[in-house]
Amino acid sequence: MTSRRALVSFGIGAGFSTLVGNGWAKASTPLLAARANRHAKKQLVCIFMRGGVDALNVVVPHGDDDYYKERREIAVPAPGKEANSVIRLDAMFGLNPGLSALLPLYRAGQLGFVHAVGSPNLTRSHFDAQDLMESGTPLDAFTRDGWLNRCVATLPTDVATSPFRAVAVGRSLPRALYGSQAALAINDVESFGLRAPGGVRERLQAGFRSMYGAGGDDAANAGLAAMTTVDLVREKTAGKYVPENGAEYPKPGRPLMNVARLLKADLGVEVAWVDAGGWDTHANQGAGVGQLAGRLKDLGDSLAAFHKDMGKRMRDVVVVTLSEFGRTVSQNGTGGTDHGHGGIMLLMGGKLQGGRVFGDWPGLALDKRHEGRDLAVTTDYRAVLAEVLTRHLGLPELAQVFPGLPSNSALNRKLFA
Q1: Span 111-166, pLDDT tens digits
Q2: Would 234 be classed as within a structural domain?
Q3: Per-residue pLDDT tens for 329-358?
Q4: In this structure, is the dihedral angle defined by the CA atoms of residues 294, 296, 299 and 304, taken in order, positive or negative?
Q5: Does residue 13 sit within a domain?
Q6: E strand residue ranges, 50-200
Q7: Going by C-beta distance under 8 Å and a sequence separation of 6 or more, which residues neighbour residue 3?
Q8: Are 320 and 385 in contact (CB under 8 A)?
Q9: Number of domains making up the chain
Q10: How does DSSP assign 298-346, residue by residue?
Q11: Where residue 329 sits, what CATH number does that domain have?
C-alpha cells in the first residue's frame, strides 16, 4: 500500500506539471474527458525571447548608415559584402544569416516582422519589463492576471471548458497565463505526469485515486482532474512522435515540437506558450556569426521545422514572438549591447500578409533615438497582439484583455488578410 507521505514526496516531486485555475477544482473528471475531445478552430503560439533580444541584429537596418557607424565590430556585414552577411529583404532591411531557414517562408508571405516595437514602459529591468509586458498593462504594476489568461476568458469558443485551452510548454506557468482561467504547464509531453520506474507509476496513480476517493471537496476534485488530465495527454499522444512532411527539429526546438504534438492531438488547445531564454548579450555578441547568430539559427531552424511539421494546419495557427525590450544602438566595450528600448516581433502562419517588415522605422540618427541611445518604439506591442487576437482568434473586443490600450496605436498596415 502506498502511503500518503510517499505519494507526496515521490509522486508530486517526480513530475506533476502545474494545473491552475478555478475550473480544476469544480470540474468532474468524466466531463473533463468529454470536453477535451474538441478541436480549437484557430490557435495561437507565443514564444517569449527572455533577456531582451537585439532587434538590430535580428532584422538588420542595412540601409541606415548609422547602424554601421555605431557597431563597428558587431554589425552584420551589408548584403553581399562578405561571408555571413545580411540576407537582403529590401532596400532598408535584411535578415541575420542565422535566420536563413526562414527566408523561404518570408518570400512566400507566411512570415513577417514588426520592427521598432515595444512597451510604453521605460524600465530597463528584465524582471519588471517581463512582468509588465505579460500583464498586458505595462503602465499598471498592480494587475494580478496576465493578458493571455484574460484572452482565454474572453474568446467565444466551443471548447470553452476544455482543460487544455491554455498550455505552457515548460516547468511553470508564465505570468501571461496567470488568472481565473485554467491553464496547464507541461514540461515535456513524453514524460508528462508521474515519472517513476517500472510499475511504480501505476502504483502511484492507484494510490492517488484511492486517496482522492470519489472527490467531493475542491482538493479532491482538483486531484482527480489532474489525474484525468495526465491520462488524456498520455492517451492522445501515445507512441513515439514522428514529425510530418520530413520536418527535422534541432535539439533546442523540442519545446516547439511538443507544441506541435499537442496541437495535433485535438485536445482543444487554443493558446500555447514557450519560453526561450539566452538573449541577454552584454558581451561577445557577434555579428553574422557568434553567440547571437547561433541562438537565432536555433530559433529559425525550429520555426521552419514547426511550420513544415504542421503543414496545412498552419492555416489555423499563428506564431508570434515577444521580448521584453531591445538593446542599445551602440555596441559596448565588451563586444555586446546593453538593455535598450525598441525591439522586434516575428509573426508566422494563418492569413498573415507577410513578406514584409511592418511598423514605422524611426531611424538611428542620434536625435531619433530613445534617450539618445536606443531604437525608439513606434508601435506598441499590444497593438500587434490586438490584431492577432481579433483578426486571427476572433476575439470580440479588446477592453478586457488590454485595458488602456490607446485607440491610435494601430499598425501602419494590416497584418492579416
Answers
A1: 999 999 999 999 999 999 999 999 999 999 999 999 999 999 999 876 556 788 99
A2: no
A3: 999 999 999 999 999 999 999 999 999 999
A4: negative
A5: no
A6: 59-60, 87-88, 94-95, 111-118, 166-169, 183-186
A7: none
A8: yes
A9: 1
A10: HHHHHHHHHHHHHGGGGGGEEEEEE-S--BBSS--TTSS--B-S-EEEE
A11: 3.40.720
